[in-house]
Amino acid sequence: MRITNLHYFTENHRYYIFRDFSLSPVDAKMLSLVYQPVVGAYAVSLYHLLYQQLAGDKLGFSKAEQLRRLFLLMNVEPNEQGRKLMIEQTSKLEAMGLLITKHRYVVETDEYVYEFELVRPLSPGEYFKVPHLMMLLRDKVGKFAVISLKEEFFAPEPDEFMGRTVNTEDLSLAFYDFEPFRLNASMIDAELEQALSEVSPARETPAPAGLAEQRIEYSDIIFHFPRASSGNTRFVENLKYDHGQMETINYIFNKYRLMKADIRDLLDTDGVFSADGDLMGDLLQKKANEIYRQRKRQGEYTERSLRRMDAASDQVDGDGDEHGVPEEHFVAKEFYLPVPQMLRSQCDNPDQYNMFVRNLPYTNFLEKFFPGAVPKYIEDTFEKLNVNYKMPDEVVNVLIHYISYNKKSWTRSYIDSIAASLLGKQVETFEDAVQHLRKGAEDGQLKGKKRATKAQKPNLKVVQSDPAGDALSDEEMEKMLLLAERLDRK
């Protein structure tokens, strides 16, 4: 909690709670076994206390109360030390993603009110996939304790099936295939929709932290997919249970800013699925890139982007999916890249900048270095590296950083020369790209110093005729003639 003056956080200020979830037994176990060793028992107690301000079987907002109630229930004196303690505990919860604190000014009553928005704890599968959270837990309890904690949450597969080849057939029946649930799509009950909107919370459910990008769900694909005429219908239906392939689709969907109809058309294309039903990611990305480039050439890209933004603002976010959180890749300190001068006004945090370089698609990262549109030849050059030469996005981002930070030339020939070195050395990871370009920069500096300190070539001695020299005596001339005769005889 960012509080610059303790007088802004006193027992006389009012607060209320907002939450849109209910704790499950797994959530409670995560709080006690995983979160508590990191933030401490006092912070977890505060989380439970805030959770209980609203009945367990309800969602939404609690009544507005004075902060004095929290201080008394936590057995904290409402003095300077007590306020510092409460701020410290809320800061721990905020840093771990369990709490969002907002300071709201009510004009009518001329007062500041605190809003504490509780966030559901991450599931075990999500928590242990986040590198910095797992590293923090390891530093608190140790490596072997982390392994033991993870085993606490997962039940193993039965022994008789473990490690054996089992042919699996999906017998699940989809909603639209079950006749009793068949709906009349032409019937729209406007009165019911209006009534439901009136009894819902006064605001939309906030999206989970870290999901600022748009997503396409399985239902968006299957409800409008041409199942009767497409040969890929059974492969598309299997996407409901294959979250890995859905993440690939969502990545391409955001990378090239496609419409949902575009994804459905691409999945209906021949060749995007193998004979075994595996999604051909390279082919899908190539065709998505063709759509992206075609729209830019036709001048429709801006119009469609604005239309998508308007449509997204009118939609109410769903509850989310535990598989929807994209996996973030951690950046070790020794591979940190400095923030370029031109981006320091937008992002002066090295941690955030390096996460951008490591995880953003290159199309989004490249736009940050140009206040307007990216020049077409630059876009084409990096597109060729990514699509045709299979250079990963993270390596392309490091190349973009290197050119910007060192103020190098953005010409096509210079970019191709650096990229050729990366491709020739088979650099495919963020860490390898950083090391390669650092080594190249150091070698360039050493060569420059050698050229600067290198001595000039020595002056070669030239034999010159000297007519003013001493003349030969008769004896010396006679010896030279005798020597010449001997040589002739040989």
TrEMBL record:
What are the residue boundaries of the DnaB/C C-terminal domain, all occurrences included? 364-436
Superkingdom classification of source:
Bacteria
**Where does the Replicative helicase loading/DNA remodeling protein DnaB N-terminal winged helix domain lie?**
13-152
Q: Which family does it belong to?
A: Belongs to the DnaB/DnaD family.
Per the record, which residues fall in region Disordered? 441-469
* Coiled-coil regions listed in the entry: none
**Pfam families per UniProt:** DnaB_2, WHD_DnaB
Q: Which organism is it from?
A: Paenibacillus swuensis
Q: What is this protein called?
A: Uncharacterized protein
Q: Which InterPro entries match?
A: DnaB/C_C, WHD_DnaB
